[in-house]
Amino acid sequence: MTAGSTGDSAQRAHAVSFALFLATFLALAVRITVSPALLDRVYDYVSQGGAFYEKIHVGTYLLVLLVPVALLSRPVFLRGEEIVKFRDLVRFTGLLGLLIVFLVGTGRAGAIGNLVDTYFVAGATGLILLAQNPSYRRLLGDAVILINLLSAAMGLFEATTHVRFFPYSEGEAAFRPIGLAGHPLTLGLLCATTMAFVPLTAWKPWVRIAAMLLLFVATAAAGARLALIVATLEVLALVLIVPWTSLSRPAERKAKLAVLILVTFAGAALFAVLAAGGLLSRFSEGLADKNVLARTNIYQVFDYVGWQDVVFGRDITEITRIVNDKLHLPFIESAPVNLTFQLGLVLAIPFALLVAWLILRLLRRQPRTAWIGTAVFLLAALSNNTLSEKTGVVTVLVVLLVAYLEAVPGPPARTPAGRPRTLTSS
Q1: Quick one: which of 117, 116, 127 has its CA closest to 24?
Q2: 282 located within any domain
Q3: Which are the contacts of 37, defined by CB distance < 8 A and separation ≥ 6?
Q4: Gap between the Cα atoms of 86 and 98, Å rounded
Q5: pLDDT (tens digit per residue) in 333-381
Q6: CB of 59 within 8 A of CB of 384?
């Protein structure tokens, strides 16, 4: 092979990789920023009726279609921890795909919408990112953080002006911003989660501090009370738990103490400003208002169903009718309750274990900031029905966990023939 042909091949490979990066970014942007209410104006995404294929987000279609392109368009080189994560994501998407096929085959296609739109696409997105080189992966992670920063800024504008950029169909007693997230609680969840991943970027320190401050204030503006409480603890955890490797142990302790004192006083002043600006108004009713009670009272629905409904599942429309008539609640605001009736315990428990297994595997050998961000995500998301709805938040979490993954130093994994193991297009 001549030097010219080698150079042409390298240029083609670079062009394909760059095109894949752009396509991935666009698909992610569509999945994250196009809310259910906005998409429902194009086709019956969340409305009653419509064809089954309309119940899947257009961003999900784009990302799933990109998987074979990412894996087969050019050789994919993985090493160390990247290989482990790739295998885990393949197992996750494969097992989840089997569950989806089983539900469709048994006449329960209505239960697969959130499985495909929330979880299957998250696994597929992780595979797409791992198929790209580390520099493009980091850029995609930075891009997702920037999208969340834009959403946070839009949320602050909405909270100030009481004017939303995008449609929001749920009626509320008090105005709450949604940004690009589609729901106030989702905005708070994404802002609080993203805070922990900002330190993993290569941005300048002052940019990272400003970004985290914007995300924190937007969490408060969203009126997501638990997310704000968890975000406050998150800041303390980032100061106290994350090691400062550039300093010696004694110097690190002194520096952390100084920063902790500074954060405490600055935080008190910030909360005073937020309260004066009306961004903490949801705390005026305390922590146990009617919304919190609705999330606990929903478990009374089990008093009105039989054990067969719990073990094997039941049509979620019928369960919602029981919740409306018997408990006088507008909807089921609990992920465990939703998944129990959608899948039945016989499938809901294995599904929950599968998701937990993937999260733990993705966290393997990750920095403490990633663990903190994931803990914040789970605490905030499990307080409502986010994880049982069709949402892009799980995809965001997977992107952030994979984007900043560093391969463990060492040679590429080798086949029995002694050649480096790669994924190729042949």
Answers
A1: 127
A2: yes
A3: 46, 166, 167, 168, 169, 182
A4: 18
A5: 888 888 988 888 999 999 999 999 999 999 998 999 999 999 999 999 9
A6: no
pLDDT for position 54: 84
How far apart CA 339 and CA 349 sit, in angstroms, is 9
Q: Is there a contact between 354 and 322 (Cβ–Cβ < 8 Å)? A: no
Tally of CB atoms within 10 A around 411 = 8
- Contact predicate 38/168, CB 8 Å: no
Instruction: Kindly state the tokens that stand for 240.
Output: 């106290």
Residues 264 and 269: their CA atoms lie apart, in Å, by 9
Q: Which of 77-91, 166-180, 206-220 has the lowest mean pLDDT?
A: 166-180
Question: Encoding tokens for residue 313?
Answer: 């599942």
Both tokens assigned to 297: 């009272």
Q: Decide if 100 contacts 115 (C-beta within 8 A).
A: yes
Q: Give the span between the Cα atoms of 24 and 18, in whole angstroms.
A: 10
To 10 degrees, what angle do helices 335-343 and 345-363 make?
130
Instruction: Count how many Cα atoms sit within 13 Å of the Cα of residue 200 in the half-sphere of its side chain.
Output: 30
Give the mean pLDDT of the chain. 84
Domain of residue 168, residue span: 13-409
Closest among 114, 164, 144, 149 to 386, alpha carbons compared: 114
- Counted residue by residue, the chain has a size of 426
What per-residue confidence (pLDDT) applies to 118? 93
List the beta bridge partners of residue 423.
76
Go through 127-154 and write b for each residue having 16 or more CB atoms within 10 A of its CB, e for each that does not: bbbbbbeeebbbbbbbbbbebbbebbbb
- Find all residues with CB under 8 Å of 58, minimum gap 6, and list them: 30, 34, 39, 42
Overall number of domains in the chain: 1
Alpha-carbon distances of 23 from 14, 29, 39, 122, 399, rounded to whole Å: 14, 10, 20, 16, 15
pTM assigned to the model: 0.89
Whether residue 273 lies inside any domain: the answer is yes
Whether the CB-CB separation of 220 and 275 falls below 8 Å is answered with: no
Cα 122 from Cα 395, distance rounded (Å): 4
20 lies in some domain: yes
Please give the Cα distance from 62 to 34 (Å, whole number).
13
Q: Is residue 4 part of a domain?
A: no
pLDDT in tens, 253-312: 777 778 778 878 777 777 777 776 666 666 666 555 666 777 788 888 888 888 888 888
Question: For residues 143 and 237, which has the higher predicted lDDT (pLDDT)?
Answer: 143
